[in-house]
Amino acid sequence: MIEPWHWLVLGFVLLIVEMFVPTFASLWFGAAAIIVAALSWLLPIPVSVQIIIWLVLSAIFLLAWFKFIKPLSVDRTKAGLGGSVIIGETGMIIVAPQPERAGTVRFSVPIVGAAEWMCRTRGEQVAVGDRVIVTDIVGNELIVSTMTSQAVINKNS
């Protein structure tokens, strides 16, 4: 016969295993075992029902992890990828570029490890606060275009 403390020990063992194997798989099995331990202490549940509850809770926790929680932790910075991933990203001008000096564009999410990049335009006038789209990269500077002029270019293409 499985006692409630057996479930509790199993749950804590699985939680400890998670510390050494960071896959977030045994974490959910351990949490389900701890819940089954609490339920079996409160209610006289047959062993077969305890096992079914443990399996169902484990499946629910795993599904919730992969469907809802894990997508929130995806790294959207694109760090470590080539510079071409920046092309097409949109940001806001915080320092307007001048013919003699580069400006600065800020992205809402860090792109390739930085939220702010030096930028220039191809003769186009942009002001602080304008939304721009990255069209090219030259060295460490981004070539940007206003969203409205880019829409015209795309419409004519």
From TrEMBL:
InterPro entries attached to this UniProt entry: Membrane_assoc_protease, NA-bd_OB-fold, NfeD-like_C
Claim: Transmembrane helix is one of the keywords in the record: yes
Residues that span the membrane, as ranges: 7-39, 45-66
Residue ranges of every copy of the NfeD-like C-terminal domain listed in the record: 86-144
GO CC annotations, alphabetized: plasma membrane
Keywords attached to this entry: Membrane, Transmembrane, Transmembrane helix
Major localization listed first in the record, in broad terms: membrane
Pfam family, one: NfeD
Subcellular location: Membrane
Membrane topology: Multi-pass membrane protein
Name this protein carries in UniProt: NfeD-like C-terminal domain-containing protein
Gene source species: Psychrobacter luti
